[in-house]
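Revision sheet: structure tokens.
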Amino acid sequence: MACSKFPRIPLAHLPTPLEYLPRLSEHLGGPRILVKRDDCTGLATGGNKTRKLEYLMAEAEAQGADTILTIGGVQSNHVRQTAAAAARAGLSCHLVLARAVPWDDPAYEVSGNVQLDHLLGAQVHVLPEGTDREAAFHRMARVLRTNGRKPYVIPSGGSNAMGAMGYVTCAEELAAQARDAGEKIDYLIHATGSGGTQAGLVAGFHQLNSETQVLGVDITAAADDIAAKVWAIARETSDQLQSENALRKTSVQVVEGYAGAAYGLPTEQMRAAVRQVARLEGLILDPVYTGKAMAGLIDMVRQGRFSPEQTIVFLHTGGMPGLFAYNEFFQADDAI
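Predicted:
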């Protein structure tokens, strides 16, 4: 394995399943659609960040950290999984949460991921609106050090080259599953936000000389910024892997048009996709990431972007707890 030289602490239930979605495939009438179930990684309801945390927590241990510090939105999936990883390691955990989404559902700041953050024993610091989140994050790190702690600082989404190694190994895992099942994967589609998951997949498939194309569906409404982040992390990851061939910038493909007005703000297209997949396949998506990515997949199929002979894998990155923070939105107009 390309990442075998990097320390890793097992946290996830791996390999995650690769499943065919026959009813969705038939309903859309396009390519074969499979799902890679990274919602089943297992740590505190699972999700994609657990793969990253296997490498990040190993680095924290190697550095002798006694505290984990990270940042995210109030309903951050990354923050929730980080709190769980810290609990398993017996480390103190501080979470800096920014009010990144102007959403007025009364459940938003008390249920879903933030409820689990508290349950997992993390110290939760919710920033007042308008606060410079990065400045507050660095200030918290300084305060912890001043108080004699040894914090290991994890960026938003766990998205750096070390975290991306988790998705280099995912690319290897998926390629092996496809080979064993006699599948040829033409495209992998997933939600892209902080950039580390897509960067790891791009670097991983490049390392394998795979022809699988990775399409990251932007969920931030800032696709150009995300593409730049993905490229920077992918390039650094590839350098750390000492890839024989240079990574091409064209391998970073970010699909825009499905994020809506802003990160975390729900769309009608997303709601329809979440309901449709739930009712066709019994598969639960979330409103911030996978729901918007699935809306993109469905629309691209309907536009004829893929041929019937092709095979698409949808990477389910988890996030189900976030559904409970958007209760009113999903209760409204409940018909398709």
